[in-house]
Write a structure and sequence with these properties.
Bound molecules: glycine
Number of helices: 5
Strand content: 25-35%
Radius of gyration: 19 Å
CATH class: Alpha Beta
Shape: globular
CATH topology: D-amino Acid Aminotransferase, Chain A, domain 1
CATH superfamily: ATP-grasp fold, B domain
Helix content: 10-25%
C-alpha cells in the first residue's frame, strides 16, 4: 500500500487504532436528527472467493438476521451506540437525518463500532428491506419531519439471503456488455419473496447487459436462514450471462452452526 502508493499521498501515514476479532454485523438505522430506529441486522461477506478467500469487495452476499446479534447485543447497542451517536452529533451541531449504517464487530468484550456510513449498505439493504413490514415512504417522511419516534418499525419473522452475481475477475479485471438472460423468471405471483436487484447492468437495444463487477443481487426469503439460503441459490440458476461468478457459501457457516 505504501511502497506502491496505492492511495497516493493519503497512504503515507497509517494509524493503527486496534485489532479486533469477532463476528461482524451490519445494522442500518433510520435517523431524524434526534431519534434513531435500527432496522433488523444483517451480515455481509466481503471477500471475493468461497471460504472468505480472495480480495476484498463491496460485498458478495448477505443474510439477515444475524443470529449473533441477539436481543442482549441489540439492547447494548441501543443504549451505548445508536442513541449516543445521535446525541453526540446533535451536540456538535451536526444533526443527522438519513440512513446511518453501523458496522459492528461483536468482540468478546462486547460490540464495537468498526465504521459508520451515511447510506444504506449494499448488499445489506437487499436482505433488510424485503423483510420490512412498514411502508418505507412513511418512514422516510417521518425522518424528514423529525417524528421518527411515532413510527414502530417491524420486520417479518423470517430470513433473507442475497447472493451477488458478479462478473468473473471482479474486483480486478472483468468484461462487461454480456447479455443477461432469464430476468423474466422473477415475474409472477409465485415468485413473491424472490428479487433480482440490479447493480452493474445497462439497458441496450439488445436487452439488459452486464455493466459492472457486481451485476445483480439475487435475494430470496424463507422461514429461516437455511430455507432462505436454499431459495436464493435456486434463484441464482434462473439468471445467466457469460462470465457469471458467485460465491457458493453465503450464509453457509450460519446454516451449519
Ligand atoms: N456492504 C458493505 C457496505 O455497503 O459498505
Amino acid at each position: 500500500l505504501m511502497l506502491d502508493k496505492q492511495f497516493g499521498e493519503a497512504g503515507d501515514t497509517i494509524v493503527i487504532e486496534d485489532f479486533m476479532t469477532g463476528r461482524e454485523a451490519s445494522v442500518l438505522c433510520f435517523c431524524d436528527g434526534t431519534h434513531i430506529k435500527p432496522m433488523t441486522s444483517a451480515q455481509d461477506h466481503k471477500r471475493a472467493k468461497d471460504g472468505d478467500k480472495g480480495l476484498n469487495t463491496g460485498g458478495m452476499g448477505t443474510f439477515s438476521p444475524s443470529p449473533f446479534y441477539t436481543d442482549d447485543v441489540k439492547e447494548f447497542c441501543e443504549k451505548h451506540i445508536y442513541q449516543p451517536t445521535m446525541d453526540a452529533m446533535k451536540t456538535e451541531g451536526r444533526d443527522f437525518t438519513g440512513i446511518l449504517f453501523v458496522g459492528l464487530m461483536l468482540t468478546e468484550d462486547g460490540p464495537k463500532v468498526l465504521e459508520y456510513n451515511a447510506r444504506f449498505g449494499d448488499p445489506e439493504a437487499q436482505v433488510v428491506l424485503p423483510r420490512m413490514e412498514n411502508d418505507i415512504i412513511d418512514v422516510i417522511d417521518a425522518c424528514i419531519d423529525g417524528r421518527l419516534n411515532e413510527i414502530e418499525l417491524s420486520f417479518e419473522d423470517n430470513a433473507a439471503v442475497c447472493v451477488v452475481l458478479a462478473s468473473d475477475g471482479y474486483p480486478e479485471h472483468y468484461e462487461k456488455g454480456k447479455l443477461i438472460k432469464g430476468l423474466e423468471n422473477f415475474e409472477g405471483k409465485d415468485k413473491e419473496g424472490y428479487y433480482a436487484f440490479h447493480a452493474g447492468t445497462k439497458k441496450t437495444d439488445e436487452g439488459i447487459v452486464t455493466n459492472g463487477g457486481r451485476v445483480i443481487g439475487i435475494t430470496a426469503k424463507g422461514a429461516n436462514l437455511k430455507e432462505a439460503r436454499a431459495n436464493a441459490y435456486r434463484a441464482t440458476e434462473w439468471v445467466d450471462f457469460e462470465n457469471k461468478y458467485m460465491r457458493h457459501d453465503i450464509g453457509k457457516a450460519i446454516d451449519e452452526a
